[in-house]
Amino acid sequence: MPKAAVCPAINEPLEVVDVELDGPKAGEVRVRMGASGVCHSDLSVVNGTLLSPLPAVLGHEGAGVVDAIGEGVSRVKPGDHVVLSFVPQCGFCYMCTHDSPEMCETGFLAMAMGAQLDMTPRFSRDGAALHQMSALGTFSEELVCPEISTVKIDSSVPFTSAALIGCGVLTGFGAAANTADIAPGDTVAVIGCGGVGLNAIQGAKWKGAERIIAIDRFDTKLDMAKQFGATDLVNATDRDPVAQVQELTAGRGVDVSFEVIGLKDTVQQAFAMARRGGQAIIVGVPKMEQTMEIPIAMELLVNEKQVRGSWYGSSDVQRDVPRLVALYQDGTLKLDELVSRTIGLEGINDAFRSMEAGEVARSVVDYGI
Ligand code: CXF
Ligand code: ZN
Fold first, then answer.
1. Whole-structure pTM over 0.85, yes or no?
2. Which of 130, 163, 258, 368 is least surrounded by Cβ atoms within 10 Å, i.e. has the fewest?
3. Do the two domains 3-168+314-366 and 181-309 of this chain adopt the same fold?
């Protein structure tokens, strides 16, 4: 019986309890978790910003070791170390075969249902089914997930660092490396320098951006942004960040801006600070009903601005996870530095609090295997 952190209902603290876990069915694998990052989206499920079926085992950013496989599984075998993808990517549906596996149709349904590909979850508590966030539920010592949610990695990568690849790194780095059109020498701005924003900075640097303007309200986060490659720091607490970016770019604005918070105001700011012909890339997850306003004539038409969403960093996980691991191994990609603190499962509610207070890039549950 694995121990897991369960969200019983909206606005209730997570409960750390023993749960039942069924074995893997065909096409599924059981993973003994090594580590799980605590992401803002987990908190968004708790506070109702992000709709996900409850009660559920939360957590969608993790890495571990395969300890059992169901019938027909060929991609991984027991003993393999894996990063878990929060989007199962089938490789066969319309989106997967049109260069958009991050929007896999099969995966999307399982995510929305909080279940495996057959639409049933493998966790239960006292006989009642418990959903699995993103077909995973990484806040558990052990889980069962689709084979297509796993990517094998080199066993030398520590789980606490590998786990972060599963959401924050793929999402942030991918937004810059895959979604945006960044050319060497470009100037970019990143609004929000938490776990995902820091990776957008790393991705922009890798793409050859010359100036990277980091924007946040916390100086501690701006200090980290500098460590991760930001060249200019803007504290948005007292002065309009758009005006500050205009000053830093001779009034032109940036080639590419990234919004990594999920608020209307910051989305509008990202759009406003993109130069004529520039791009605003939306990475943060806003409330479902949130809209934005765009002056069509001046901004879309005359200024040819683009606004583009970036879901899971437009990642193809089988291509991108190995690429990120290689960049980590050659010292280009910082992962260890993203881990602000390691905790046990019972520390998750406090990790939510410190995330809201802006104290951490990432708290990581270390299962100690
Ligand atoms: C979320 C989006 C909704 C499902 C889980 C992951 N993205 C980033 O944290
Ligand atoms: Zn996440």
1. yes
2. 368
3. no
